[in-house]
Amino acid sequence: MKRDTELSKQIKIMMAKAKDSLEVARQLHEQKHYNDAASKAYYAVFHSLQAILLTKELSFSKHSAVVSAFNKEFIYSGDFAKDFYKKIIRLFKDRQIGDYEYTKEIDRASSETDVADAEMIINAIKEYLKNEGYLSA
Description:
This protein has 5 helices and no strands. Helix 1 runs antiparallel to helix 5 (108-131). The chain is globular. 36% of the residues are buried. It is mostly helical. It has a single domain (5-131), classed as Four Helix Bundle (Hemerythrin (Met), subunit A), CATH 1.20.120.330. This is HEPN domain-containing protein. Pfam families: HEPN. Residues 14-127 form the HEPN domain. Belongs to the UPF0332 family.
């Protein structure tokens, strides 16, 4: 299935950014920068959510709108497992803690979970985009 060239190009760029952010999250986790790793893991997922929403001609600037639209368009429809939403919400909350909290911190186990969940979500979105013809195999 051949898709619009410009749309596919934009999605490819956004997914590359997600991949880069995930790699940085892994590195930060390994360097024991757990707050920053959690934040970068969330942003990796956020970029992939924005990419997949473009397939429905949807684009939002607010994080909550991106997450909500993904839930509505892709989780309710059964394209992705229901637990994706819970994982994304947890990633968002951990990002908030990592970036803005002074009395709480992300621990090693939470950071590790965040990075692993981000990788799983991004890989699933990448596979969906390949199957739908937006990314080459």
